[in-house]
């Protein structure tokens, strides 16, 4: 097969074909395994989770928007209340 037909067969852009071929030549079959694409680093850190747990241990009721404020003050990272709520669910609180 010639290269354009190879690309049509695999439904891939020329750049993708060359990247995969280069990875195969460098790493063998292991280079063809699926890899999760890198993304942005997580904003919610284990330290933040510990901080949230400390707040939730206090004798009061916290909402996600109320937790977002002290998190921003303490860690300098603004999280949307929706994101805080998602992490609360993942931690088993909601």
From TrEMBL:
This is Probable transposase. Keywords: Plasmid. InterPro entries: Homeodomain-like_sf. It comes from the Bacteria.
């Amino acid at each position: 097969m010639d290269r354009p037909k190879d690309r049509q067969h695999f439904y891939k852009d020329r750049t993708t074909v060359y990247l995969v071929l280069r990875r195969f030549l460098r790493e063998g079959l292991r280079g063809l395994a699926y890899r999760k694409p890198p993304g942005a680093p997580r904003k919610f850190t284990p330290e933040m989770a510990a901080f949230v747990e400390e707040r939730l241990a206090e004798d009061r009721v916290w909402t996600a928007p109320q937790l977002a404020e002290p998190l921003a003050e303490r860690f300098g990272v603004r999280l949307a209340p929706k994101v805080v709520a998602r992490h609360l669910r993942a931690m088993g609180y909601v």
